[in-house]
Amino acid sequence: MKKLALTMFLVIGGLWLYGQTTHFIPAFEGNGQDHMNIYVIGADISGIPLEAGDEIAAFDGEICCAVLTLSGTVSSTSLAVLRASMADPGEENGFTSGHPITLKFWDATAAKEYDNVELTFYNTSQEIISPVPYIPGESAFVTASGSDVEPDITPGLTVAPNIMNGATNFEVLVRVSEVNGAATTGAISVVIPRDSRLTFTWNPALTLAVGETVHNAVWSYTSTDPNNHIFTTSEVIPANGILRLGIQALFNPGATRGKSTVTAQITSGSGGDSRPSNNSDSEIINYFGE
Fold first, then answer.
1. Of 40, 49, 139, 269, which one has the greatest count of Cβ atoms within 10 A?
2. Which domain does 177 fall in, by range?
3. Is 153 helix (H, G, I), strand (E, B) or coil?
């Protein structure tokens, strides 16, 4: 019965709230294409509902895919509908199918943007479900809650083994943890400085490193930077959550012996990070030549 009621409401009873936007700017021109409808059935900032004049925008990472200005508060009887536009091939002017949905708020009265917006997804029976990614032609139903609490992400690095005799194969595990009780917003980048003695092998299908589950499938690796190995994800890390990546590597010290440091650094502002002072972690390798 709930499913039927919600479906009928969407057909004949929905209040589509919209108006001219003043803050968020869509990445596309015109009406967009291959839309996904995001039905917002509740929107608040720290428990206070958004009101007329406030804006809601849908993002794929840093790409604005849809914007609307509210003409009133949002509820299950007065939906806000975002029509997110898919990107043109080779362009960054809309969402990419399969990428996670994120929303941002603009509080017109306070003239303040909120990018720490937690989403809860529902099916048409009003049951909570797992997050739905961007898919052209599909729909998502969400409640959205913004907060003044900002995310704080910090890396943890493990190298195993860290005592090496001659050319040695080893694994690198990077844990990216949110420690301030706020979901991340936007892309996250981790950099590891290059070392001529180190050779990295990136395997996006890897699921285990240093005995822990890793999430390589949601990370991308940039190998062309001359100074750093760069790993990037648009995956949202939930409040107090963790996202891992694993690297298979070879260290070849030749005939030398000594100590070397491997460092993982989260780039400033990644994921909406609010505390740069804890954005790096290091591990020391003790090595001996053959």
1. 40
2. 153-288
3. strand
Residue pair 146/45 in contact (Cβ under 8 Å)? The answer is: yes
194/211 same-domain check? yes
In this structure, the answer to whether residues 6 and 70 fall within a common structural domain is: yes
139 and 157 in a single domain? The answer is no
Please report which helix (H) or strand (E) contains residue 4, including its range: helix 2-8
DSSP-assigned letter for residue 24: -
CB neighbour class for 70 (10 Å; exposed up to 12, middle 13-18, buried from 19) = buried
User: Distance between CA atoms of 86 and 136, rounded to whole angstroms?
Assistant: 7
Residues 56, 103: Cα–Cα separation, whole Å: 7
CA distance 38 to 26: 15
Check whether residue 159 and residue 278 sit in a common domain.
yes
180 in the same domain as 133: no
pLDDT tens per residue across span 108-133:
999 999 988 999 999 999 899 999 99
Going by C-beta distance under 8 Å and a sequence separation of 6 or more, which residues neighbour residue 224?
A: none
Per-residue model confidence as pLDDT tens digits over 91-110: 999 999 999 999 999 999 99
CA distance linking residue 28 with residue 54, whole number of Å: 21
Whether 38 contacts 101, CB under 8 Å? yes
Overall domain count for the chain: 2
Can you give the pLDDT at residue 21? 56
Residues 230 and 263 in one domain: yes
Boundary of a domain, candidates 128, 146, 164: 146
Per DSSP, the residues of 236-256 read PPPTT-EEEEEEEEEE--TT-
